[in-house]
TrEMBL record:
Keywords: Membrane, Transmembrane, Transmembrane helix. This is Cyanovirin-N domain-containing protein. It comes from Triangularia verruculosa. Gene3D superfamilies: Cyanovirin-N (2.30.60.10). Residues 47-133 form the Cyanovirin-N domain. Pfam families: CVNH (PF08881). The chain crosses the membrane at residues 6-24. It comes from the Eukaryota.
Amino acid sequence: MGTSSVFPILTATVFFLALVFPLLTSGEGGFTHDCAYAGANLTDRHHWIGIYCLNDDVDIYGFNYSMLDLDRCIGNNAGQLVPYENGNYSGSCTNCTFLHDKSLHLSCLCWNMDSKLVNSTLDLNGTLYDSNGAVGCYSFLGNKSWEPEPDP
C-alpha cells in the first residue's frame, strides 16, 4: 500500500475527528458538569453562591460544598453582566436571581450608561470552574467543606 492510498484514509479520519471531537467534549461542560447548584445568599451585603463540586478523591468519589463571593468574578459593563476579576457587580446591580436549566445563569437589573436599570443575564458556566471540589473563578477559590454551615 503506497502513501497515495493512505493519504485519503488519513484525511478522512482527521476530518471525522474534527467533526466529532467537539461533540464529545462539549455538552454540559464547564463547572456545571462537575458541580450542582445548592443555593445562594444574594442580599445587599452578601453575594455568595453555594455549590457542591466533585473532588479529585477517586477512592470515595466525593463532593465538597463550596461557597464563593461572586463579586470576585463578575462585573457590570454598561448594564451587562460580564466575567471580570474583582468586578464587584453588586455595586451597580440589584434584584439578582439564579436561573437554572442545563446551565446556571445569574440574572440582575444593572445600571447602564444612560442611568437606567436594564435586565442582564450571564451564563456562569463560562465564568466558574471546579478545582478539586472548590468552586473558583480567575485566581480565587471558594471555601471547601463537606456540607454547608448551618444558618445562624
